[in-house]
């Protein structure tokens, strides 16, 4: 697969061999993370000796492959993950409850309900069973095998343990590192210079009455996935972006923002 066609700007800015520092800039990763990728043979480097100067270079194709994987997922892995989850859920019935999904994934019921509310996880409502939500096993397997689920920013411990058993070592390494990338960025630029590939997403605060929490809507079908107490982001107030974080007492409120009605505020994260 030719990954250069997806990143013409990067191809125009870098040579066919890049230094480790340039690879860090392209991928938006720390030096230690890139070194781990090299140690695991996910990136291959060769040493260049120029007089007294020694440095490592990496093929740009390899860097772009990992970049594509981090942003879009592995086009060949989904069928393998479907088979992986089919084997894992073999003992479950054809219709699975939210309670069972919580045990399978390690996420709270409120988080799973936010997936349902945002439309990412499709359900069937059984009126013969007290209107309880059920998810067909086939639909759940499709969701668990997808890139959206596997790039959740704050993964549960159960999710991280399952990822370690995934059939693709490269995909496994990449989605484990996605959490670090998003966490470092969302915590307020705490590491100084940030890669040019970090882009904050802008959306609108909306209240999810089903999950009793706020969410951020980025587009018609794109949501953040549910905000939790302590999540940080920036709020647009009088044409200025103000850092804040969401908390809950009797009602949800934003620290540093003097308003009781936070519904509809423009935020970026």
Number of helices: 11
Distance between the termini: 32 Å
The count of strands amounts to 12
Strand line-up of the largest beta sheet: 8-7-12-9-10-11
How confident overall, as mean pLDDT? 80
User: For the CA atoms, what is the radius of gyration?
Assistant: 21 Å
* Poorly predicted tracts of residues: 177-198
Shape: globular
Largest sheet: 6 strands, antiparallel
Q: What is the H-and-E element order?
A: HEHHEEHHEHHEEHHHHEEEEEE
Account of the protein in words:
It is a single chain. Helix content is 38%, strand content 22%. It has 11 helices and 12 strands. A hairpin with a 3-residue loop joins strand 10 and strand 11. Helix 5 packs across helix 8. The chain is globular and about 70 Å long. The two termini are 32 Å apart.
Features:
3 domains; globular; six-stranded antiparallel β-sheet; Arc Repressor Mutant, subunit A; 22% strand; 269 residues; Thrombin, subunit H; three-stranded antiparallel β-sheet; 38% helix; alpha+beta; 11 helices
């Amino acid at each position: 697969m030719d990954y250069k066609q997806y990143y013409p700007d990067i191809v125009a800015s870098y040579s066919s061999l890049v230094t480790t520092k340039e690879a860090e800039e392209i991928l938006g990763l720390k030096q230690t993370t890139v070194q781990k990728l090299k140690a695991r043979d996910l990136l291959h480097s060769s040493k260049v000796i120029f007089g007294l100067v020694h440095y490592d270079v990496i093929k740009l194709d390899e860097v772009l492959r990992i970049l594509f994987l981090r942003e879009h997922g592995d086009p060949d892995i989904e069928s393998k993950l479907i088979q992986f989850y089919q084997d894992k859920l073999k003992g479950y019935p054809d219709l699975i409850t939210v309670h069972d999904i919580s045990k399978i994934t390690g996420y709270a019921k409120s988080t799973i309900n936010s997936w349902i509310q945002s439309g990412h996880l499709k359900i069937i409502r059984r009126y013969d069973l007290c209107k309880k939500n059920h998810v067909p096993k086939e639909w759940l397997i499709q969701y668990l095998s997808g890139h959206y689920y596997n790039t959740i920013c704050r993964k549960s411990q159960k999710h991280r343990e399952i990822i370690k058993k995934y059939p693709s070592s490269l995909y496994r390494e990449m989605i484990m590192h996605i959490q670090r990338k998003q966490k470092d960025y969302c915590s307020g630029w705490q590491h100084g210079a940030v890669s040019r590939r970090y882009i904050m997403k802008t959306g609108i605060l909306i209240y999810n009455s089903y999950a009793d929490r706020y969410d951020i809507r980025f587009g018609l079908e794109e949501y953040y996935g549910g905000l939790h107490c302590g999540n940080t982001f920036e709020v647009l107030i009088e044409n200025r972006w103000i850092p804040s974080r969401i908390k809950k007492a009797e009602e949800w409120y934003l620290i540093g923002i003097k308003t009781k009605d936070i519904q509809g505020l423009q935020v970026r994260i």
